[in-house]
Specification:
Elements lengths: L2 H18 L11 H13 L5 H8 L3 H13 L3 E6 L2 E9 L5 H8 L3 H8 L9 H17 L2 H12 L1
Antiparallel strand pairs: 1-2
Helix pairs in contact: 1-6, 2-4, 3-4
Length: about 160
């Protein structure tokens, strides 16, 4: 596998993950992907600012601000004024996950993964294949944590 193949695999996995997540009841602003990227950054670097998140993730500052507002409304993050500069707000993950976060984390992957692995004619994948891929995803998730992505970004910026 090369970098391009890994990148494309990552995009495919993101799309499957998005399909597995239950949709919010109310129409939400912004993309699910940007909200997840922002939340992942906040979890790995609590006490950060919108500008810092934008610089680290490459997302436009307006998109980060929208994602932070959604996360704050959902109870997933808390913001408070920066004591060093009252114009800025420091963003921290909420001490207790919100009901929406709990709902998303509890959503099973099976249906989305089965749909992605189904043949063009709709034939479901072999259960052994489904098990093999689920096991591989569990291994990747154990080793390739958000902190690993942060370390990779830090190496790029060094």
């Amino acid at each position: 596998m090369n970098g391009v193949e890994l990148f494309l695999l990552g995009r495919t996995l993101m799309k499957i993950g998005e399909q597995a997540m239950p949709q919010p009841e109310a129409a939400a602003r912004g993309s699910v992907r940007s909200v997840l990227v922002v939340l992942g950054d906040i979890v790995t670097r609590p006490g950060t600012t919108v500008g810092e998140i934008a610089a680290r993730t490459g997302l436009p500052q307006s998109q980060v601000s929208t994602a932070v507002a959604r996360l704050e409304e959902a109870g997933s993050v808390n913001t408070r004024p920066d004591p060093a500069d009252r114009r800025r707000r420091l963003i921290h993950p909420a001490a207790k996950p919100s009901a929406r976060v709990a709902e998303v984390r509890a959503a099973p992957l099976d249906d989305a993964l089965t749909a992605a692995l189904s043949a063009p004619d709709g034939t479901a994948p072999d259960p052994g294949t489904l098990h093999e891929i689920t096991t591989a995803l569990d291994v990747l998730a154990r080793h390739l944590t958000p902190e690993a992505a942060t370390r990779a970004r830090d190496l790029d910026n060094a």
